[in-house]
Each structure stands twice: as structure tokens, then as C-alpha cells.
Write a structure and sequence with these properties.
353 residues, alpha+beta, Jelly Rolls, 4-stranded antiparallel beta sheet, 30% helix, 18% strand, globular, binds 2-oxoglutaric acid, binds fe (ii) ion, antibiotic biosynthesis, metal-binding, Oxoglu/Fe-dep_dioxygenase_dom, oxidoreductase, iron
Length: 353
């Protein structure tokens, strides 16, 4: 995509109240958030000074880590968890190599936790580069987690649900995770940052530096959108080269927010999981993509489940998506070699009806 197509589109920006208790102002705000997603696929939340400071510390820790030699960075992987380093070109979207360099942060579960001992897939300690890096990322996760919690209550209100905690009951001990990303400058041969895709959970809350490169696809009336959680309906690569795409211009001190696959599933498509993609710029770019998620063992059901017994067991969905995304990673190999998917069968069977 050439830079002249980067027409900045101003996004709607909202300020969150410190708590969401369901008063009239909360309902009005919730409706506005839902309306913004339904027209634009995305909105912005203003960051408080404390949140912005946490963002800057996380970005600084990421810059310091990414500046280390490749060999040193590549040592931070684990065969128990998908937390850890992903080199530029290692990840593919729709069969094409992405330019992004990533440190994935998944829940950091101590080795003596019963779930690790029982060999639950994806459970284990994070292979942190350093205690300082871990501190910066954990502080950031706490800050955005708070935002996610309030947004889910506002979303329930905005959708007119009587049960304001319809979503947040799923996210107690949520499997929140994040991708800490660096994009290299565009090469003569490639401008590809990350191919078009949707993300897997309830909410995607992201912060970017001042470089730019993110595009989102707004809802398009009548357009077919895959159910990304089903094996045959991956959204990876879909509509990559078909307009409309909105350039998400960097704005200081905001978070961008859009729905993920579980939100699309639960709302029956009233809120679509927003497709997005990244083009490389003329300079390197740093971002933080946080995913606000149900608990590993939570079961998501449609808000109106009349006549369907469809459900998504979140841990199964997460494991499927990461195995699909990283077929050659040591973590995937160990899940397969040790038959760990059997644990998921057992968890799903025990899922509340
Ligand atoms: O860098 C960005 O702005 C988005 C990254 C992204 O889409 C992802 O990591 O899933
Ligand atoms: Fe994404």
C-alpha cells in the first residue's frame, strides 16, 4: 500500500469513568462504544497519566530487549508455554512471513502449580529476558486489564444486557496475554508487517508509538466474515487487498480497542471481530497488543442461545489458535508428543452445562 492512501481518519475517543456501576451515564457511554465499533470497527480510550507512564516503561523495556543480539533473544523460549521470543519472519499469516519481531507474554504460571504438574497445555513459567522486563510488562498488563474490565461492563450495558457482568464473569482469572512487538523499517522487497487477521478473545487493547502502520477493516454491510475459531473459516489473509481499510493514525496517550473472535461469537456477529493488518514504515515501530480474555477453563456461550448448544471452551480455542499459528514451535511439538490435547478433552467435558 502506498503512503498516499494513508488518509488519517479521526477515530472516536472516549474517557472511561473510574468505575462502572450501571448508572445512566454508563449506559449512554456503553451505547456509544457499541455504536463506534459497529460503524468504525475500533475506537480510542484516553490514557491517564499513570497508564501512559506504564505504556512508556513497557515500550522502553521492549526497545532495550530488541536491541540485544538475536542469539541472546532467541534463547527466551519455552516448550511449556507460548510466552517468549518470536523472531522476525518466524510467524506467518496465511502462508506468508510476517516482518514482526515479538515477545509474547502469556500468564506466568509457576512450575509447581498443579496445572503445570498435570501437564495442562500452554501452562508454565514465562521465559522472561530479565526481572526488569517482567516488572514493566506485568505493570502494563495490570493497567490495561483494569481498562478491559470496565469496557466489558460498559459493553454489556451498551448491548442492553440485564446482566452487567455477563462478560466479566468469564474473565475472572482471565487468560489475558499480550504481544510486545517491534517492526523493522520496510525493506526494498517487502512492506509486510503482519497480514490481515483477527485476534482470538474478547477485546484487543493496543498502544502504538508515533510511527504508524496499523490498518483496520470496519464492518461492511453484507460482507461475509468468517468464524475464525472454526478450522475451515480462518480470517487470516481475508480481504487483505480489498478496500475498505482505515489507517489508524498514531495519537499520543490513547489506547485503541476493538472486539475479538469470542465477542463476535457471543454477540452472534452484532459485534464483529475486527480484521487488521500492519504495513512497515520507513522507521522501526514498537507496539503493545494486549488481549483481554476469558479464563482458560471458561466456556463462552452466545448471549441468546435459543436453539443452540454451541459453546467455545476458551482454553481449547487458545491452544488451537496458537498451534495453528506456530506449527513448528517447541511448545506445539511438546503438546503433540505428550498428547496434552487429551487434557483439554477432559476439561471440556467437565465444563458447566
Ligand atoms: O502492531 C499493531 O499495531 C498490531 C499488532 C497485531 O495486530 C497483533 O500483534 O496481533
Ligand atoms: Fe492482531
Amino acid at each position: 500500500m502506498s503512503s498516499d492512501q494513508r488518509t488519517p481518519t479521526p477515530l472516536r475517543t472516549f474517557r472511561l469513568p473510574p468505575t462502572v456501576d450501571g448508572n445512566d451515564a454508563d449506559i449512554t457511554l456503553g451505547r456509544a462504544l457499541v455504536a463506534a465499533w459497529q460503524s468504525d470497527g475500533i475506537f480510542q480510550i484516553s490514557a491517564t497519566a499513570t497508564q501512559q507512564a506504564a505504556t512508556e516503561r513497557a515500550l522502553a523495556a521492549s526497545r532495550a530487549f530488541c536491541g540485544r543480539p538475536l542469539e541472546e533473544k532467541a534463547a527466551h523460549v519455552s516448550d511449556l508455554t507460548y510466552s517468549g521470543y518470536v523472531a522476525s519472519g518466524e510467524e506467518e499469516t496465511a502462508g506468508e512471513r510476517d516482518g514482526s519481531e515479538i515477545f509474547t507474554v502469556c500468564p506466568d504460571i509457576p512450575a509447581d502449580d498443579p496445572r503445570v504438574i498435570e501437564r495442562w497445555p500452554c501452562h508454565g513459567p514465562a521465559p522472561w529476558p530479565s526481572p526488569a522486563y517482567a516488572r514493566a510488562m506485568k505493570d502494563y498488563l495490570a493497567a490495561v486489564g483494569e481498562i478491559g474490565h470496565r469496557l466489558l461492563r460498559l459493553t454489556a450495558l451498551g448491548l442492553g444486557l440485564r446482566d452487567t457482568d455477563r462478560f466479566t464473569r468469564l474473565t475472572e482469572d482471565g487468560w489475558h496475554h499480550m504481544r510486545v512487538l517491534r517492526f523493522p523499517p520496510a525493506a526494498a522487497t517487502s512492506e509486510r508487517g503482519i497480514g490481515a487477521h483477527t485476534d482470538y478473545g474478547l477485546l484487543v487493547i493496543a498502544a502504538q508509538d508515533d510511527v504508524g502502520g496499523l490498518y483496520v477493516r470496519p464492518p461492511v454491510p453484507g460482507e461475509e466474515r468468517g468464524r475464525n475459531w472454526l478450522p475451515g473459516e480462518s480470517m487470516a489473509g481475508r480481504y487483505e487487498h480489498a478496500e475498505p481499510w482505515t489507517y489508524v493514525a498514531p495519537v499520543p496517550a490513547v489506547f485503541t480497542v476493538f472486539p475479538g473472535d469470542i465477542m463476535q461469537f457471543m454477540t452472534g456477529g452484532a459485534l464483529l471481530s475486527t480484521p487488521h493488518k500492519v504495513r512497515l514504515a520507513d522507521r522501526e515501530r514498537y507496539t503493545l497488543a494486549y488481549f483481554h480474555e476469558p479464563a482458560f477453563n471458561a466456556v463462552a456461550r452466545p448471549l441468546t442461545d435459543a436453539g443452540t448448544d454451541e459453546f467455545i471452551h476458551y482454553g481449547t480455542h487458545f491452544t488451537n489458535m496458537f498451534m495453528r499459528c506456530y506449527p513448528n514451535r517447541v511448545t506445539t511439538a511438546r503438546i503433540e508428543a505428550e498428547g496434552r490435547l487429551k487434557i483439554l478433552d477432559r476439561l471440556r467435558e467437565g465444563a458447566p452445562a
